[in-house]
Each structure stands twice: as structure tokens, then as C-alpha cells.
Amino acid sequence: MKFPRFLLPLGLLLTLSLAAWAHAYHASILELRFNPEKQRLEMALKIFTDDLEQDLSNGKPRPVRTDQLTRAQLNPLLEDLLRRSVQFSARPGEAALPLTLVGLQKEKDAYWVFFTAPLSGKATGVTLRHQLLLTLFPDQMNIVNLEARGQKQSLLFREGETQQQLKW
User: Fold this and answer.
1) Three-class SS of residue 19?
2) What is the value of pTM for the model shown?
3) What gap in Å lies between CA 86 and CA 65, rounded to an integer?
4) Does residue 151 register a pLDDT over 80?
5) Which of 1, 55, 63, 153 has the most crowded Cβ, counting Cβ within 10 A?
6) Which strands sit side by side in the sheet containing 86-89, from one edge to the other?
């Protein structure tokens, strides 16, 4: 059945409303572990699929649907997202550490994105600038759980609080 042209905007509005209702809050979780043997940070970032797709679609001619992409197509998009949104440096003001995408795991309504960052010498901490999805969602909360040297620490990143020191 074809819908009349004047009903298409109404259908689009309804679709967008349902997408916005998909989850009541905007949050990500970054599980971060310091690996002293390999001198690197090992990370797992959980992000809702619809939020991820909205960010990846920003500035693109067509919406990005992760389920319609191959890993070879999705990986560069994820690497760009990580470079823009999650930046580690040895000290404030220094260049960001390079991030290496390691893997991806799909869940029902979210993805786990796995990546690493090398550390030099006897690192005792890093500066983290975490601004994932903050330009899209004013209520976005980025939770970071750090495990290093037998200690656990949790931090919250949100609008106005995008940079913090992590020490171990």
C-alpha cells in the first residue's frame, strides 16, 4: 500500500518519536583496565545501538545502519568516533595516545567496542577527555570504571565535565 505524500512527514515524525522513546536515558559505560605487563590500557565501551548509529550518521548523506555494514565498512567509522570522542594523554595538554580498535560485540540493543592504548614507561595515570555523544544529547552520561593495580575507581563524564585525571 502506498501512502499519500502528505502522510509521509507524519510517518517520519512518528518513527522519530518511537526512536527517541527507545531508551529513557543516554549513557555509555567504559570499562578500563591498566595492564602493567603490556604497558597499555585495555578498554571495552558499551554504547546503545541507536545512539551509535545517530552519531555515525551525523554529516552523512544517508543514515548509517550498523546491521547493514560489513566489519570492514564499520571499523573506520568506529575508529573515527573513538578518535573524536575518547582521548587519553600522558599529561594534560599533550598529544592523544593512539587507540587501536581490537573488536566489536553486538548485544540486543547495544554494542561493546574493544580497543587499547599504549603507555610509555612506568605510567601512574593518564588524562582522559571523554565527550562521547555530548554534542547529540545534553543529558548524556559517560561512566568510566577503572581497574588498575588492584584498585577500582568510577568516574562520571558529562557536559561541562569532559576531562579528568585517572591515577593508579
Assistant:
1) helix
2) 0.84
3) 22
4) yes
5) 55
6) 86-89, 125-130, 163-167
